[in-house]
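$ ./design --mode recover --in tokens.txt
reading tokens...
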């Protein structure tokens, strides 16, 4: 069922689902409740952008969760499986192909022109809010349930 759900999801939802299910991250780590902080490219030192392409230098991919994103306010390390990295790299390379530039401070999961729901133009941050992250996962599961019957 996991494979069916993730195969039906769009590219960003796949990356989100992979981060949550294959590394154990909470949605609040990917993007906090008000969208001011979240997981950044620098928090995943094994993923690098070289010549306009995102690559992973080592599997499993290490994720450093900073204290301000951690539930107990203590930093910790987790890992993303090879399958999860595959979905994340597909998403990051899609962003790069659309003309975006990724730096160390870039959000791992961001809102963009294809996914503008709930993001006013005056907002400076590119992080998703926790509710939107949960909505992406919920939508993928509900699409699977409705199309299965």
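writing sequence...
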């Amino acid at each position: 069922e996991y494979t069916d759900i993730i195969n039906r999801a769009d590219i960003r939802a796949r990356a989100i689902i992979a981060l949550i299910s294959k590394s154990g991250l909470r949605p609040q780590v990917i993007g906090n409740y008000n969208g001011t902080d979240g997981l950044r490219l620098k928090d995943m030192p094994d993923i690098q952008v070289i010549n306009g392409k995102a690559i992973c230098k080592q599997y499993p991919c290490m994720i450093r969760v900073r204290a301000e994103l951690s539930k107990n306010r203590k930093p910790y390390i987790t890992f993303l499986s090879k399958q999860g990295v595959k979905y994340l790299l597909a998403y990051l390379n899609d962003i790069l192909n659309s003309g975006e530039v990724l730096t160390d401070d870039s959000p791992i999961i961001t809102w963009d022109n294809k996914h503008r729901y709930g993001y006013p133009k005056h907002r400076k941050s590119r992080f998703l809010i926790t509710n939107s992250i949960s909505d992406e996962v919920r939508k993928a599961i509900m699409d699977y349930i409705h199309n299965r019957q």
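exit 0
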